[in-house]
Amino acid sequence: TRRVRTRDLIAAKERGDRWPMLTSYDQYTASLFDRSGIPVLLVGDSAANNVFGYETTLPVTTDELIPLVRAVVRATSTALIVADLPFGSYEEGPAQALRTAVRFMKEAGAHAVKLEGGRRVAAQIEALTGAGIPVMAHVGFTPQSEHILGGYRVQGRGDAAEEVIADARAVTEAGAFAVVLEMVMGDVAKQITKELPIPTVGIGAGPDTDAQVLVWQDMAGLREGKAPRFVKRYADLAGVLGDAVKRYADDVRTGEFPAAEHTF
Ligand code: KIV
Ligand code: NA
């Protein structure tokens, strides 16, 4: 088997085949998701919340994300690995975006990068694709802008639909190979998906996008507490792991572990 390429994803759209995408930040999940047939893995800046324990995605840095991307690339053989450009690493303009993206490609072996924004980052997307770096765009709700967007809110309601549509058109025009639509009204996501030649990847954008993405700890129930409405939980990893740790701790306290078979 060979690595998935961006043109495979465009071909899938032309055939009408939907595909799943997940985040991954480490060796074991990357290897497992790769072997399970997930064609695209995102080392998201959501590592800020889901790995490093920050409150928002804003604090995470390129230096923190590069080792995670490297681990995910090394652990996989088929999936296309997308590295998220963190807040503050591309907003200054095309030159800064190129510097950051080149680090993810050279130092970590990423196959593509992702950045947030529509019309406002079109020049960055052009510069990266012009340098041979595939770009996944991300419009609608963009977590790095949560303070100006007023928190986690659905985008593209009513008159705002035209804003999201204009952003999706701009990133396509600039050369993006795919676009994430986050918390976009379902009918707007459907319209964008129909119009654009590149795949749309929905998260909280309804059933009519070409692909779907979720944060793996949300999908697998490792993150506890109330999940956003767009998350579906496929497992209770927090329950499974919590139970395993409790039984291990009990066994150590009672002397049940280690037993003869664990002893040299
Ligand atoms: O960082 C992330 O996990 C993301 C996806 C949810 C699209 O950007
Ligand atoms: Na992200």
From TrEMBL:
User: What are the protein's UniProt keywords?
Assistant: Cytoplasm, Magnesium, Metal-binding, Pantothenate biosynthesis, Transferase
- Any Pfam family matching the protein: Pantoate_transf
Query: What does this protein's record comment on cofactor binding?
Result: Binds 1 Mg(2+) ion per subunit.
Q: Where does Mg(2+) bind?
A: D45, D84, E116
Gene3D superfamilies reported in the protein's UniProt record:
Phosphoenolpyruvate-binding domains
Q: Where are the catalytic residues?
A: E182 (proton acceptor)
The protein's required cofactors: Mg(2+)
Binding positions for 3-methyl-2-oxobutanoate?
D45, S46, D84, K114
Q: Where in the cell is it found?
A: Cytoplasm
Listed transmembrane segments: none
First-listed, main subcellular location of the protein, grouped into a coarse class: cytoplasm
Per the record, what are the reactions this protein catalyses?
Answer: (6R)-5,10-methylene-5,6,7,8-tetrahydrofolate + 3-methyl-2-oxobutanoate + H2O = 2-dehydropantoate + (6S)-5,6,7,8-tetrahydrofolate
InterPro entries, per this entry?
Answer: Pantoate_hydroxy_MeTrfase, Pyrv/PenolPyrv_kinase-like_dom, Pyrv_kinase-like_dom_sf
Enzyme Commission code:
2.1.2.11
Look up the record and name the pathway of this protein.
Cofactor biosynthesis; (R)-pantothenate biosynthesis; (R)-pantoate from 3-methyl-2-oxobutanoate: step 1/2
Provide the function of this protein.
Answer: Catalyzes the reversible reaction in which hydroxymethyl group from 5,10-methylenetetrahydrofolate is transferred onto alpha-ketoisovalerate to form ketopantoate.
Q: Could you give the subunit structure recorded for this chain?
A: Homodecamer; pentamer of dimers.
Q: What is the similarity comment for this entry?
A: Belongs to the PanB family.
Protein name, per record: 3-methyl-2-oxobutanoate hydroxymethyltransferase
